Amino acid sequence: MSPLITGGRSDAVPVGRLNVIAVLILLGSIALGVVGTVVAGNPIPAIVMTVIGLILMQAARVAKQWERAVVLRLGKFIGLRGPGLFWIVPFIDRVSSWIDQRTITTSFAAEQTLTSDTVPVNVDAVLFWMVHDAQKAALEVQDYAQAVSWAAQTALRDIIGRTALGDLLRGREQIEAELQRLIDQRSNPWGVTVSSVEMRDVVIPVALQDAMSREAQASREKAARVILGQAEMEIAHSFQEAAKSYQNNPTALHLRAMNMLYEGLKEKGALMLIPSSAVESMGMGGMLGAAALNQERLVGGEDGKVTETE
Q1: Number of domains in the chain
Q2: Contact of 53 with 28, CB cutoff 8 Å
Q3: What value does the CA radius of gyration of the chain take, rounded to a whole number of Å?
Q4: Which of 52, 54, 93, 211 is most buried, judged by most C-beta within 10 A?
Q5: Can you give the residue range of the structural domain that contains 24?
Q6: pLDDT digit string (tens) for 216-254?
């Protein structure tokens, strides 16, 4: 878990917080001191104006558009400043912190955490949050960024501990919503709002992965056998209905038999095996003989021979 980084905290102007106004004040003071030194012929004006410039440049501060500066006067909070240019009283006022109010992302994880069915898992997640109340973030908690990080991690461990592995793998959206609610509930008093939580990965032991893979394969094979059995039942039911239709309609049965012969013999050299009971019950003897005779004639015609049959 990586702690979040916020703006610098200092009562002096650090190098990274220097601004054009402060530089201009210092350069103007030095210029005035140099002029005074030239006129008076004494270096004291240059020294005095340089010191004054160094003091006055502390008064000019510039906050970026997404920042709020927390100003303390003799240790007491007097308000927020920014964005843009603002002034403080040197050595009396100080900017204790710079609050970034943009949406911030941080990753956090729960390693080797037991689920409710005692399965160790590693979970990685990403938190999206922002400071909606800069005053609370500065005054109610020592380090709001670190506090949010720890709150996210403990909430994730809490949810994993009361969730089964199957629910953890299947119900990510519900777990993310619950995780967001818990973190938001803990961080709201600090002036922080959680926008969303996204679980990136759930890692389970390799041995358990193999067992789950075998279980899933067996489940799919079972489902395939069930579907095949249902298909056989539907086919048998269709045959039963067809038998009822042919029972009192011999003509339809003969037509069906002729169609079966046609389908079987339309390819040259086809061989059909028909039960003798079907030949007797469906009157297929004559039709089979005619089909065989036609096939023999076709074969004889291709060989250039003419065969006559009485």
Answers
A1: 4
A2: yes
A3: 44
A4: 93
A5: 15-99
A6: 777 888 888 888 888 888 888 887 777 777 777 777 766
